Amino acid sequence: MTGAAHPIIADSELDSYIACPSCDALLRDRDVGAGDIASCPRCHSVIEAPRPLAMTRIIMLAFAALILLFGALFFPFLELEAAGMVRRATLFDTVAVYSSGLNAPLSYGMAALIIVIPLVRFASLLYVLGPMALGWYPLRFAAPVFRYAETLRPWAMVEVFLVGVAVALVKVAGLAHVSLGPAFWAFSALVVVTVFKDNFMSRVTVWKTLDTRRRS
Amino acid sequence: MEDAGHATQILTAHAAGLAGCTSCGKVHPGGAARCLRCGTPLSPPDGRSLQKVWAWLIAGLIVYIPANVFPMLQTTNLGRTTDNTIVGGVVDLAEHGDYGVAVIVFVASVVIPLGKFAAIAYLALSISRTVRLNADRRHVLFVIVEFIGRWSMIDVFVVAILSSLVTLDFTATVKPGIAAVSFALSVAFTMVSALSFDPRLIWDVEYPPRAKGSET
Q: Is residue A204 included in any domain, yes or no?
């Protein structure tokens, strides 16, 4: 991408330019091929990085993530054994811990951060990108759905929770015998899948694709 | 209009009298209210948006105080109850010899939050030119702040996991203290503060467009 040379640009030419979403630098828009990376010459943030078959891959990863999240929800993720008693904790138990007293709002907050928001994001990605991967027109409200999914991005804290589990594990290890349940592995896989998915996703590319495929 | 003839100087969409979308990069004629492609509200870079950053930052700082004064974790072992504040918990861990975990918790709950308060404040002050920092350094600082904020949630998750595992079945019980909710709020507020920061301001100070922008 090259810097713009003319300060005054006719309205009809606007589509051949792009403004860096991070720093507003006006750049000449070019077709970025799969595997190529377009970054801003000023702030060096990546503007577009389409990957081959990205839409299909994101769809599959989001679907896998959805299944893993359900697994993580309903199986115990840690088992504690002490004095002949076994205590299993599921994600629900963990969220419910804060449900009494002054901490009650935190219960909802945690449920949102580690269950609801990731769930909503995976579902909305399927909704928005599913038709793209299949070569269809975007579904109704695809644009607002994708916009909100992107707004929620920093608030999906699955990977932060996983580090929390690791820390808790060490803290409790001296107290009793702890073993990892199936949900822990589901959660770990979920983190890996999420990282891959975010890696494949290029926001500007998605917007451009939605725009060109729009039924008009 | 400015002469954008300098090869080294980058023209921003705003300086060219246009409005660039901060989400998808589409360039609109100046004065457009919403992006036609993704629906994101468009607004010119404006130093006044820093007020929002300061407001959330101060809110985050205020709730960080009770988070440190009140107990984060209440441990009952054989009828003896001890209240642990955040720092107390770290000291406990270190005394048990779990230095690695102690460091993780200390970094996540003390170093990152305090560092983030300082970093956001420094960034905001450098935009209003109270302190000097060049644009590239500012950009690096911004990227770090944006990336690292969510990891402070670790301690809140750890407390929840511990409490759900170590319940009444055992001789020891762990209950979350009221500091947990204020700590979580502090993390959330500083995240909102960092998200309200307009990265376009990072660059505009060093480039002429900002003076022009304040007239519009």
A: yes
| B162/chain A closest Cα distance in angstroms | 6
* Residue B18 to residue A211, Cβ atoms within 8 A: no
Q: How many CB pairs under 8 A join A and B?
A: 230
Q: Tens digits of per-residue pLDDT, B180-204?
A: 888 999 999 999 999 998 888 887 6
A100: domain range? Answer: 54-213
A138 and A104 together in one domain: yes
State the pTM of this model.
0.83
Collapsed DSSP state (helix, strand, coil) of residue A26 = strand
CA distance B85 to chain A (A): 15
Residues A115 and A208 reside in one and the same domain: yes
pLDDT of residue B210: 43
Residue A1 covered by a domain: no
Same domain for A67 and A39: no
Tally of structural domains, chain A: 2
Is residue A2, in this structure, part of any structural domain at all? no
**Ordered DSSP codes for B22-90:** TTT-BEEETT--B-TTT-PBP----GGGHHHHHHHHHHHHHHHHHHHHS-SEEEEETTEEEEE-HHHHH
The pLDDT assigned to A2 comes to: 43
Taking only the tens place, the pLDDT of each residue in B138-156 is 888 898 888 888 888 888 8
Gap between the Cα atoms of A120 and B110, Å rounded: 31
Same domain, A90 and A196: yes
ipTM: 0.82
